[in-house]
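Data availability (excerpt). The following record was deposited with the supplementary files.
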Amino acid sequence: MADLIVANRTLVLEGARAGSANVSIKVAAPAYRLSLRAKADAVTELSQALDISLPQTPKTSTTSGLRAALWLGPDEWLVIDQGESNLMEACASVTAAHSATDVSHRNVAMTVSGDGAEATLNAGCPQDLSLEAFPVGACSRTLFGKAEVVLLRVTEDTFRVECWRSFADYVFGLLEEGARDA
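Predicted structure:
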């Protein structure tokens, strides 16, 4: 009988770190992610089930413990949980019409922090990321180079960059270049 071959899944960019004198780029810890779509009448019930208030204002997010909910559109959110919660199970109890899709393995996240974080991101993103235009807690789906990303400003000098796994090498490389220029 033939030998059984088992594939081992490796994490994208496992252990990758980059940066410069004034910026640090590293891969964020694995997290659970939920792509959520719902009309306004389902928001209260979903917020209760997920134990986080879904933001209703463009470019905003809410945080509760290790969980964050990012407003991506009038009826769309990205929920990120860095704990051990089952987001899909939480949504299963909701009777209001909604769509919840686990995208945990589709996305990978990087953190960009330091005095040069904003300049590093602006090397590939045309959006105004100044603290005045993009304050702490602001989030946005935007372009970084040629890749779609979701940005979240975590602190004054720290951003979370979410991208699809297939674009991770490209996004990380562009962040490295931006850090050298920052």
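Summary of structural features: The two ends are 58 Å apart (CA to CA).
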